[in-house]
Amino acid sequence: MLVAALILQVQGPMAPGDPLTSDGAPLPAAEPSDFRVFWNDGFRMETTDGSVKARFGGRIHYDYAYVGNNQAIEQAVGAPLEDGTMFRRARAYWSGVLFNHIDFKAQYDFAPGTVAFRDVYVGLLDAPWGGNVRVGQYKEPWSLEEQTSSNYITFMERSLANTFSSVYSTGLMWYNDILDQRATAAVGVFRNSNEQGAQFSDSEWSVTGRVTGVPLYDEEDHTLLHVGLSANMRSGENNLITYGSRPESRIAPTFVSVTVPAEDATQVAFEAAFAWERLKVQGEYVMSMVDATTGPDPDFMGYYVQGSFFLTGDYHPYDRSYGVFGRVKPASFLYGPDGGCGAWEAKLRYSAVDLTDSGYSGGELADITGGLNWYLNNNTRIMLEVVHADLDGVDSTQIVQTRFQVDF
């Protein structure tokens, strides 16, 4: 009903001269509260004075993977290595800003087979005490890779270092860009939450913060150097800290995992990225220091280094307000008026995770992933990857996977 009411208020583009109705009478002057509807990489609506904005959108990520059989790995992980296909994500959302200062978002994922909360929050922009405030369920301010939208990450899956990331939590966060958008800062207090955004427990809390800086930035030449630091302290779930990781394919089973009886864990992540025209290099190192309730305290770690290069004259844009990379916009579209071929990107990554320390043997896993991304236009992408996954002390296997993606 709301969408229909808004669309009824839309004023379409007029021919040169005074705007007229169908019977030739002049149209009434636009009111500040009148809405216009337009397309800008998604369906957008806003009042003529810009004080109220709304956006409707969604994403579909459909994956297929061939997973090489390996009996030694199957026995080690206790699960078969099988080919598969899945809807990795199938989301819809509604977001906007009310009266310039109240922002909101309600995003739900239908891929699990049930309706699951993702980003569901309200916020205050330009708070009287400075910065911005957000409350609800959303991603904790942690890691360049985790903060970058799944629509824009270079690879189908985030790296093995993402093992230590918290995905969606409920909480209160302050964030802001500072130094003329040369830096960002964010900090929040969170609780773990289920797929309906609820949490019923006296424990399972976390405090998370992230700061980033851009010591080198040249928008015209598409050149930048990004550095950042994230820190996190979180309690154990039922006094247990658990980490686990698949190789870089959602269709593959978990290869390494560890559970430690612990009250809490402290995590630190260092991030850096360099972009120069068509080239982008990015990496992170993460360490988790677990405070075990008995015995020695284990330290676990993960890291990755990745690079990508556009074979066409394109680049990865950077959002200085949040310290992340954004949507690739090809210089030419497939089926576009200029008869272009879209944007083509070659990519390569090495990542590793080590969950073995102080008597805990969760395993070590290393991946080499390479492939191609084809951006047909601003909203459509096809990805092809080959993953070489090496489970330390066991064996290795290969995964070939592809994704068909549309988002708006």
Sheet with most strands:
16 strands, antiparallel, barrel
Using only C-alpha atoms, the radius of gyration works out to 23 Å
Class per helix and strand makeup: mainly beta
Pattern of helices and strands: HEEEHEEEEHEEEEEEEEEEEEEE
Uncertain residue segments: 1-17
The first-level CATH class name: Mainly Beta
H/I helix tally: 3
* Domain tally: 1
Strand tally: 21
Spell out the CATH superfamily: Porin
Fill in the CATH topology: Porin
Helix content: under 10%
Average pLDDT works out at: 91
Major sheet: arrangement of strands: 3-4-5-6-7-8-9-10-11-13-14-15-18-19-20-21
> How would you sum up the global shape?
globular
Examine the secondary-structure arrangement and name the CATH architecture.
Beta Barrel
Strand content: over 45%
